[in-house]
Fold this sequence. Notes:
Elements: H1 2-16, E1 39-46, E2 51-55, E3 62-66, E4 70-76, E5 79-84, E6 101-108, E7 113-120, E8 123-129, E9 133-138, E10 145-149, E11 159-164, E12 177-180, E13 183-187, E14 204-212, E15 217-225, E16 229-232, E17 242-244, E18 250-255, E19 267-271, E20 276-281, E21 289-294, E22 299-303, E23 311-316, E24 321-326, E25 335-338, E26 359-363, E27 370-372, E28 375-377, E29 386-389
Parallel strand pairs: 1-28, 11-15, 16-21
Antiparallel strand pairs: 1-24, 2-3, 4-5, 5-6, 6-7, 8-9, 9-10, 10-11, 12-13, 13-14, 14-15, 16-17, 18-19, 19-20, 20-21, 22-25, 23-24, 23-29, 25-26, 26-27
Amino acid sequence: MLLTKLRFWTSFLALAGLSVGVASTTLAVPTASATNASLHVTQILLGSSLHHSFTLAGSTTVHTDALTNPDDISQWGGDLYVGFQNGVGPQGQASTDGNIDSTVVELTLSGHVLAQWNVIGKTDGVTVDPGLGVLATVNEDANSALYLIRPWAPASDAVTRFTYNETLPHLGGTDAISIYDGRILISASAPGTNGSAAPQPTYPAVYSVTLDEATKVASVSPLFFDESSATIANLGSTFGSSTQLGLTDPDSNEVVPWSSGRFGGDFVLTSQGDLQQIYVSGAGASHQQLSVLTLSQSVDDTAWPTDSEGVLFSTDSTNDAVDVVTGHFDRGRPMVVATPCGANSAPATCPAPNYPANYLATLNLDTGAVTPVAVSGAPYVPQGGLSFVSQHDHGRYKGYDGR
């Protein structure tokens, strides 16, 4: 534990003194707010600097490719874990050069690579269960599975693939993972891929998952459904009234830190295409309650600044980079990856007029307003992953409780 803390603070201090080796450009985002205007982006790792090897089906020839498409990101102690999707399709389809492997990379907070592991399929959710190791889902649309990676184990024993105990009842795939009160909670993404179109009252929106390491089976049970009832959370004339959900795109999820001014301690699911977040109080308990916050823009990942002078780690698939965003953060406003092209209303060809590329934004937890923020530094188009690391408390997010 002492070594872990030492590695964290060594990396953190190194970040504070990072020099920027790229030309400074301010991103053109729609109606950028002056809030967080001092935020600066630095690339700490490029996928092109890393490689993985694979063998094509029916061949003995070993191919080597650079890593591409970084997506989800999670932090544990002084290290980050990032899933690179390497061009694999959302149902596990091979990339254009025949690769079917994603790669999970362990790196320090300053970008030094420590280890990497291949998993079969397109990795979407990556998070840490301190009692187990690193968890990664694959294949967000169908043919999904779950991996457990033990970073401390020998390479031959480090990766375990779990199959689900049944055909997933929502007939889709899986995405983000959070650890809430000891429970593994996984988003039931792309509902109806192999069945009736969503929403459906029998389609789970989130699964609670238990692992049997002897049989390598992951058993699922629904936390709530795509058409469950929820209380309207947006302040206004309908605040507090009940509504029926109609979720079509369960995607990212998080555990809200207790320091949040609203929803502290809740589990939250983002239904990206529906422009909604579902906050769950007492998830999995008999007193579980759902609240729905409707957003002004489609978003993917969410991170809660717990310190005004912390740092935000982010992935950028467009530029094949893992980035760190530094500056002054507003503790009252979560940071989000705004994804206009992820909205259900987005045109088939996107970006397009009124549907710009992804951008960094803040979220108003009372109104649901998503407000772009201006950033400078390296080229930056945020993807799915955000992780905030506080200067004073580097653990309380994505289910990691600092123990």
